[in-house]
């Protein structure tokens, strides 16, 4: 499935937004929403969606995926994304992130894990932080602390610094797996000493009381 290096997300929007891309995106969304979960039917309909285009409607496709995500149409995201990748189109990190999320929400964690492993083996040091965070979020939601710690080990090896939400999930994974002695060092290493809160309508910086604050 992963065949070539993803384009950076901003490249989706380098080309001037073509006239009618929003309408075409909505057409795609409406089309896939009515289709059965059959590969031939889905791919056939999507092929017809692009049949009369001189260039692949990449902007419309990206907009359609965003629409489907907002509507929480996970199965349709999976269908469209796999079709896009079979065409070698829209191979961005955001596309992979959306696919991993959709697979998880559709209960297909094993498939998400398989795709993740392929991405990691193929790109290794090019994989962005948000994909590591996505997999940790997926495993955390499924109460799989050992899997969370496997992803964290990869992050440490590759020098990827987790964000604060991910750090807390890693800390909980250590605690849940009976490694409480490793929880505090991780939180102290990656959580910032200061945090921002809203007080009397203003954003105020305050010092954390401790690693779990």
From TrEMBL:
Gene3D superfamilies: Tetratricopeptide repeat domain. It comes from the Eukaryota. InterPro entries: EMB1417-like (IPR044646), PPR_rpt (IPR002885), TPR-like_helical_dom_sf (IPR011990). Keywords: Repeat, Transit peptide. It holds the Pfam family PPR. This is Pentacotripeptide-repeat region of PRORP domain-containing protein.
